[in-house]
Amino acid sequence: MRAVGLHPDVVVVTSRFWQTTATLVRSGDEAFCVDSPVLPDELEILPAIAEQAGFHVVGLFATHADWDHLLGRYAFPEAPLGVAESTALRLRNEPGRAQRLMREFDDEHYVERPSPLALPGAQPLPVPGHVAIGDQQLEVHPAEGHTADGMAVWIPWARVLVCGDYLSPVEIPMLSPGGSRDAYLATLARLEPLVEQAAHVVPGHGAVIDATRAAAILREDVRYLQGLPDAPLPVARRTGAQKRIHAENVAALA
Ligand SMILES: [Zn+2]
Question: How far is the CA of 220 from the centre of ligand 1 (A)?
Answer without folding.
Answer: 19
